[in-house]
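Shipment paperwork, digital attachment
Item: protein structure file
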Amino acid sequence: MKKTLYTKLVFLFVFMGILLLTLTMLTLLISIHYHMSLYVQQAGTIPSNIIKLNHHLEEALLQTTLWTFIISVFLAIFLGLRIAKQISRPLIQMKESAELMRRGSWDIRIQTNTDDELNDLASSLNHLAAQLQIQEGLRSTLSEDIAHELRTPLTTLKSHMQAFQDGIWEPTPKRIYSCYEEVERLIKLVADLEKLNEMDSPEFSLNLKKEKLNEVIVKSMEVMGAAFVEKQVNLKFKAAEQIVVNVDRDRMLQVMINVLSNALHYTPTGGSVCIEVFREKENVRIQVQDSGIGISEQDLLYIFERFYRGDQSRNRKTGGSGIGLAICRKLVVAHNGEIWATSKQGAEIYIRLPVSS
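Attachment content:
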């Protein structure tokens, strides 16, 4: 393909150059011959030496034109080769880089020395490669994370069952409940995965209705209230004016429960979680702020990716499966909204939704 592109460009430039030269030379020769003939006709009887001079002048012009044409052809070929090389080089480099990206070399970056559309194209390809590199990194850990999430409860169940079978342990209510917790964890993981797959399906849709946002938030607080009391974390809601939004009540309730659950996981006993609502012209912004351990700058970029968890949350008892916030993002985006996070003292999750007209 490299030779084909280069050859086509060379042929195009040389052909256009020769065509222009040919037309110019033919026009010049015809014009000179016409004017010389017209001069002879108007002059009438012309001495033989003038006729010979005219003949030699036409031959000289013809030879000059021929040599000029030949030199110009070589010059056109030389310039065509140079120009074609300059144009084709970045395109060929982009093609080769794209081929390497196709094979999985996401660290490839294209360097250009131009300030035109080719440079914009190279920048777009570089940005695409960077995004694919990030996604490939997340994808490569997906199987490992799923295996990890399944392996731990299954290993626990197997060891308990083996101990019961061998008579090493008595099947006490406490040990049976421990097995029950592991089964519940597996069921929740599978349910979360099913929710994500459902949201990725083309058949996924929302049952949008006008709802009072404060009521949805209060309902989510009622659902999570017992968990906050048990951990002794203070849950506050600074209610603003009553704002009506066009949402799927059950789905938005699911978003708020997941966000509150995530905040509770990372907030220590005695801490607090505060919910605030702000009106922003045609939008409403929900802020959920906790007094927990916060989120590192690196983790902020990926916390809404499925199965992503920061190093500090790898403990299964507090870290969750890493799916809850991914579900939140899917649902918020489906509502034509935005969700993002910041971290200062603790973490802040923001949700922006359009206000119902």
